[in-house]
Amino acid sequence: MARKPARQRNRKAGPEPAKEKSQSDSGLRSLPQLIVLTGVPQGRIMQAVREGFLVAAVKGKYQLGPALLSIIKFLNSRADKLPTYDNAAQCSAMTGIPVDVITQARKIKLLGPGGDNRIALATLLQVMFESRGENWKEMTSKFDALEKERMFKERSGVLLPKSDVAYTIKRGLSGFFRALDQRSNVDLPPALVGLDAAEMQRELVKSDEELKKNLLREWSLLARNGEAKDAR
Fold first, then answer.
1. Is residue 16 part of a domain?
2. pLDDT per position as a tens digit, 1-60
3. Are residues 136 and 100 in the same domain?
4. Strand locations in the chain, DSSP E?
5. CA distance 177 to 42
6. Which range marks the domain in which residue 117 is found?
7. Could you say which DSSP state residue 117 is in?
8. Would you say the pTM of this structure is higher than 0.70?
9. Rounded distance, CA 190 to CA 81, Å?
10. In the chain, how many domains are there?
11. Are 48 and 108 found together in one domain?
């Protein structure tokens, strides 16, 4: 008798060969990719490279994690310094200083760090002040002193920040106009029906006093903690 064919065993498929990691999986990014990812202007990224904050892992490529940390460190080092612009047009657009003024300042002194073609705002302002016979160091010292005085007065409550004052006025006026609408359109019309002139005057005076009292209460709340009932 012919032998029955042996049953074929089901063999489990072996693991698929590992695919080669793409460039993006390796964590490497080019400068244009870093600019898109971070939103930091190209000029600042290039400055970070020039100053050694941002170092390529391989030619033209940067490890993403260390690169982001390096950019943060670079920006932090510039937090209390005036910016540097790539060219006169960019500087003019960001500061409002006319291009011809920047061009004239360039004839007096090189404005870029290391003498390159960029515009360091601190150097530009120094040239502008000195060209008018003003001492830049004295001006900066005076500015620093005034800034410290302003900060001290704000912390001690002697001086109110402009934004806080504007917010309080806006909220207070909003409450005032809303109270006037309530008084004229809702409260007074039914209260004045059938009254003679003297009685109407008494009702109006009473309403005025109530309005004043409510406004003083609302403004006191705003002045104390920036809040008021139903203020919008």
1. no
2. 555 555 555 555 555 554 444 444 567 888 888 888 888 878 778 878 888 888 888 888
3. yes
4. 28-29, 62-63, 84-85, 119-120
5. 49
6. 84-156
7. S
8. no
9. 64
10. 3
11. no
